[in-house]
Write a structure and sequence with these properties.
Number of strands: 29
CATH superfamily of the largest domain: ANL, N-terminal domain
Radius of gyration: 27 Å
CATH architecture of the largest domain: 3-Layer(aba) Sandwich
Oligomer: single chain
Strand order of the largest sheet: 2-1-12-11-13-14-15-16
Strand content: 15-25%
Distance between the termini: 79 Å
CATH class of the largest domain: Alpha Beta
């Protein structure tokens, strides 16, 4: 090989300054086109969290109690883990408190793998009870603290818990009269107050009913009856618990857990009917938390959340993600305009957690000189809508949005790390590598959204689902292992019918299996996913799924309601759909409307109470005698359109239903009214 001459070397040296910028420009172009640097954190987080999950499964340390213990016994022991209402607890202090709560729970007879129901607003005690249960190998069932009446009783029954722990704020809804109304009979025994109830065959499947045990009582109970003990947490009880010994049970008390075994139950409203207990498995909990901590680069961060811990968003991707990174979680009791930013400033939070409507509420408050006086570097959550996204970032000086899409029972999720306007409003974004990976795990299929029970459309010749093209709306499906469904999807506890309803087969090829999200989306050529709507009757309002069947049933229990047809309507300037009920009333007197408003507010969680009421003389029906919703939804909340059809529209103001006028609609359009 000839040796380069000095002249050749000189030419090379001269060309180098020109070649390097050209190469850099080429690499930048390829990166911009294919998003390699964007995909890397996502793929790294996926791989590292999966490897971590496999190692914990091999060591039988999937229970995140071990993560807390490890932090408490390391050099990290004096680092704050929990901040609440001005107080803070280090990892070592939290570990000590958790062990004391475990001691108390054991004194109540709680056994390994037993399910214990919890009805708590956000607090430090919520975390102590939760991890106290994990410390002794038991499983918490998180009840939605907004639920009252029949939905609340249903969640207690379907949890199969014999022990229900309730904070002071929930005392009234667990009162004796409220429980008696729904079939709970008080049966005092020795030093405890218990309630017995008949098992409703629709509440829990036979397999779960057969697994439940009933404590010994003076008189034998029927086979289909259970006892429930309800314990209210007050200051006296929490003070007593802290006097107990911090006893650490042996590892055998938490042993033999697999990635698909239950870590906890988290209730969802589902697509129809009453809330269902979704199984949050150890694998999903641990891997999801590890993924979130890596994806958001949590290091020495303080994550602030005012979102309810009974949701997996705040519990798994908030508390557990912070635990897995050794960071700090700052809790708020509930979301409030008045406490949100002051609590963020007081805790020095660096990341805030949201659901979409949270950001809209914050943006609707009058501007303040303090809007950017904080240390928040990023916001993470789900449901941040396109029209709020950029204004929220600009006003509050937030550089990065970590938006995700997931469901407690789903086998996976979608993620969007956004620091510019390219993916603003999208629930996910991926580069070429990420999209290639997702192409094997996710698919969008065509459906008929106007159908009463929308199902994916299939090819007449092959029987397989019709796959959507880019930018075409379709239902999002997630791939499952057809030979081992429970590995990625554990379904709803004790409800095989509901579990199976979310599985669809023969999608892309014969014999395959996918999870049905129930959500309508589109995927564009730039690798972005856009959420469009919920499929079917269920609609989303204030980041919650609202079951029309549940609302209609509650309305129907009022003695002046002849018939009710519930649906979601679009409201200018608001995310999701607001609840509207077309009702046939025996009379529409003001006293009836006031009584009806009080009734639904007592029977339903706040987000499910219909904001609009359409009084009609005759319900619209199909040729098969089914209620029609599509026409009512299309007419929406325009009083002129509604009244032209002979109906009258009301809306909920200050706790009562009053006439909704054209001027009210104009005020909403101007942004003068927020629902």
């Amino acid at each position: 090989m000839p040796t380069p001459s000095l002249t050749d070397t000189g030419h090379a040296a001269t060309a180098l300054p020109y070649a390097l910028p050209a190469a850099a420009a080429g690499l930048a172009y390829l990166n911009g086109r294919h998003g390699f640097t964007y995909d890397w954190p996502l793929l790294y987080s996926l791989v590292s969290s999966t490897v971590s999950g496999a190692l914990h499964a091999r060591r039988d340390t999937l229970n995140l109690f071990y993560e807390l213990e490890s932090r408490a016994q390391s050099s990290h022991s004096n680092h704050d883990w929990v901040i609440f209402q001005g107080r803070s607890w280090t990892y070592a202090q939290a570990y000590d408190v958790v062990l004391r709560y475990g001691t108390w729970l054991k004194s109540k007879g709680v056994e390994k793998d037993e399910i214990v129901a919890m009805d708590f607003v956000n607090s430090d005690v919520f975390i102590w009870v939760w991890f106290g249960l994990w410390s002794i190998g038991a499983k918490p069932a998180f009840l939605n603290y907004n639920l009252t009446g029949k939905p609340l009783v249903h969640t207690v029954k379907t949890s199969t818990a014999r022990l229900v722990l309730v904070d002071q704020e929930g005392r009234d809804k667990f009162g004796e009269d409220a429980l008696k109304e729904h079939g709970f009979l008080r049966t005092d025994r020795a030093d405890k107050v218990e309630y017995a109830f008949d098992m409703d065959q629709s509440d829990v499947s036979p397999s779960v009913r057969n697994q439940t045990t009933t404590p010994e009582v003076s008189e034998p109970l029927p086979a289909a009856q259970r006892h429930v003990e309800i314990i209210f947490f007050d200051d006296a009880l929490t003070s007593h618990i802290l006097t107990l010994a911090p006893t650490r049970l042996p590892n055998a008390s938490r042993a033999n857990q697999t990635p698909s075994d239950m870590a906890m139950l988290i209730y969802t409203s589902g697509t129809t009917g009453l809330p269902k207990p979704a199984v949050m498995a150890w694998g999903k909990c641990g891997i999801g938390a590890k993924f979130a901590s890596s994806w958001m680069s949590l290091k020495n961060d303080i994550v602030y959340t005012s979102m309810p811990l009974y949701h997996s968003s705040a519990s798994v991707l908030g508390v557990c993600a912070v635990l897995r990174s050794g960071s700090t979680i700052s809790l708020s009791k509930k979301f409030s305009h008045t406490t949100f930013w002051p609590e963020i400033r007081a805790s020095n939070a660096t990341i805030l957690h949201y659901v979409g409507e949270t950001c809209r509420y914050l943006l609707s408050a009058p501007p303040s000189a303090l809007d950017t006086q904080h240390k928040v570097r990023a916001a993470f959550g789900n449901g941040l809508r396109p029209d709020v996204w950029e204004p929220f970032k600009r006003r509050f000086g937030i550089k990065t949005i970590y938006e995700f899409y997931a469901a407690t029972e789903a086998p996976g999720g979608l993620f969007n790390h956004s620091s510019n306007s390219f993916s603003a409003g999208a629930i996910a974004r991926n580069g070429t590598l990420g999209s290639a990976l997702l192409a094997h795990r996710l698919t969008l299929v065509r459906i008929d959204p106007s159908a009463a029970a929308p199902e994916p459309l299939r090819d007449a010749s092959t029987g397989l689902c019709q796959i959507c093209a880019y930018n075409e709306p379709g239902e999002l499906l997630g791939k499952l292992d057809a030979t081992n469904i429970s590995e990625g999807y554990q379904g709803y506890y004790g409800n095989e019918k509901a579990t199976q309803s979310k599985i669809i087969r023969n999608v892309r090829q014969k014999g395959d299996a996918y999870f049905r999200s129930g959500d309508l989306m589109r995927w564009d050529r730039e690798g972005r996913f856009w959420f469009l709507d919920r499929i079917g009757d269920t609609f989303r309002w204030k980041a919650e799924n609202v079951s029309t069947a549940e609302v209609a049933e509650a309305l129907g229990r009022h003695d002046k309601v002849v018939e009710a047809n519930v649906y979601g309507v679009q409201v200018p300037g608001h995310d999701g759909r607001a609840g509207c009920a077309a009702v046939v009333l025996r009379d529409a007197e003001p006293s009836t409307l006031a009584s009806l408003a009080a009734h639904v507010r007592a029977q339903l969680p706040g987000f499910a109470v219909p904001i609009f009421l359409r009084c009609t003389q005759r319900m619209q029906r199909t040729g098969t005698n089914k209620q029609q919703k599509h026409g009512l939804q299309a007419e929406g909340i325009d009083p002129g359109v509604v009244e032209a059809n002979g109906d009258v529209l009301f809306w909920l103001r200050d706790g009562v239903y009053v006439r909704f006028l054209k001027s009210d609609l104009e005020r909403i359009k101007r942004g003068a009214v927020k629902l």
